[in-house]
Amino acid sequence: MISQKVAQQSLRRLAVQQPYAMRWSMMNAASPAAIAIGRNVQTRQAATSANTEDPTKILARQRLNRPVSPHLTIYQPQITWFGSGFNRITGVALSGTLYLYATAYLASPLLGWHLESASMVAAFAALPVAAKILLKGTLAFPFTYHCMNGLRHLGWDLCLGITNQQVIKTGWAVVGLSTISAIALALL
Amino acid sequence: MASFMRQSSLLRQTCLSAFRQPLVTKNVTGVSQVVAFHASAKKQILPPPQQVIQGTMNDPAPIPESHPSEGSYHWTFERIVSVGLIPLTIAPFAAGSLNPVMDAVLCSLLVVHSHVGFQASIIDYFPERRVPKTRTSMNWLLRAMTLTTAVGLYEFETNDVGLTEAIRRVWKA
């Protein structure tokens, strides 16, 4: 602290008594007069490091050291995001079934498969009752869930029911209603 | 002068860190408790891929070209298709099955809805910067499958009993 005061005072004294000397020493720039009489000395700092590596490479390497954002497994299972993920899973399952069936139906004459409705009905009728109910339920639950949850999504697009409590309530309501209606459809 | 200033700021730092020091609790082995959050083994599910910098380091993020079939128009189109599917989904339950025209409309909307849904899934799960080739091939696979599905459903509608009627018959079998 004392040394700081001493330095400050001597700098002030210098500034008052020899303003030009002060300016030259502080700004490290020669005045026009100094240049005219050849009294200026240009000083240029030499590079202190001999690092010639491509700076973009350094940045790329630093980026690899950044933490990776955590994956879904660290989050607590909650109806809000489980319901949303299940909506996509059911949608992909239903659309995948449609895509595979329609494409197979198109290719069936070439492959000699019988996928027309009459043979499908006959094949399904030959199954035992438990298998029928299981198959119907497996198809019905994704359908009911995706349809009902789709209504929720369309509601959110209109800013309806977007508070956390409402999302939780409607989420569980969709789980309950879709399960009940899927069981009803399976037993139909 | 400049070097003097630097020194004083250094002094200030050491002063502050001297105050901070007692707050860092240490256990018996001398490991700081502050790092306990990172104590478990590092198991990254998706480790960062090869990092590349295109252009210079300070380029702004590119602004995508606006396109009428992307962004908000695309979003609105998706919603219109989804809303259109609601009555077409309820009607077969009320009427037993749909007439051929409505059945064809249902199939068309289902194909569009499915295509858009698969497209969104591909965009989400096959990021272009991570798996550019897989992304492209999945997009082309989707286009091909959508085409075969559309033609297959057209065949089913014209040569068979129609989607809703077929489901009804299988369900009642």
TrEMBL record, chain A:
UniProt KW Lipid biosynthesis keyword: no
Query: Which GO terms fall under molecular function for this chain's record?
Result: electron transfer activity; metal ion binding
Pfam (any one): Sdh_cyt
- Give the subcellular location: Mitochondrion inner membrane
GO annotations of cellular component type: mitochondrial inner membrane
Sorted keywords for this record are: Heme, Iron, Membrane, Metal-binding, Mitochondrion, Mitochondrion inner membrane, Transit peptide, Transmembrane, Transmembrane helix
Q: Where is the signal peptide?
A: none
A Gene Ontology annotation in the biological process aspect, one of them, is: tricarboxylic acid cycle
Q: How does it sit in the membrane?
A: Multi-pass membrane protein
Q: Which residues cross the membrane?
A: 89-111, 117-135
Q: Does the keyword Transmembrane apply?
A: yes
Membership in a protein family: Belongs to the cytochrome b560 family.
Q: Could you identify this protein by its name?
A: Cytochrome b subunit of succinate dehydrogenase, Sdh3p
State the organism of origin.
Aspergillus nanangensis
TrEMBL record, chain B:
Gene Ontology terms for molecular function: heme binding; metal ion binding; ubiquinone binding
Chain sites annotated for binding a ubiquinone: Y125
Q: How does it sit in the membrane?
A: Multi-pass membrane protein
Gene3D superfamilies linked to this entry: Fumarate reductase/succinate dehydrogenase, transmembrane subunit (1.20.1300.10)
Binding of heme b, residues: H113
Which keywords fit this entry according to its UniProt record?
A: Iron, Membrane, Metal-binding, Mitochondrion, Mitochondrion inner membrane, Transit peptide, Transmembrane, Transmembrane helix, Transport
UniProt feature coiled coil, ranges: none
Q: Where in the cell is it found?
A: Mitochondrion inner membrane
Alphabetized SUPFAM superfamilies for the sequence: Fumarate reductase respiratory complex transmembrane subunits
Cite a single Pfam family from the UniProt record: CybS
Entry-linked InterPro entries: CybS, SQR/QFR_C/D
Q: Which GO terms describe its cellular component?
A: membrane protein complex; mitochondrial inner membrane
Give the CDD domains listed for this entry. Answer: SQR_TypeC_CybS
> Mind listing the GO biological process terms from this record?
mitochondrial electron transport, succinate to ubiquinone; tricarboxylic acid cycle
Could you say which protein family the record assigns here? Answer: Belongs to the CybS family.
Please identify the protein, giving its name as recorded. Answer: Succinate dehydrogenase [ubiquinone] cytochrome b small subunit
The major lineage groups are: Eukaryota, Fungi, Dikarya, Ascomycota, Pezizomycotina
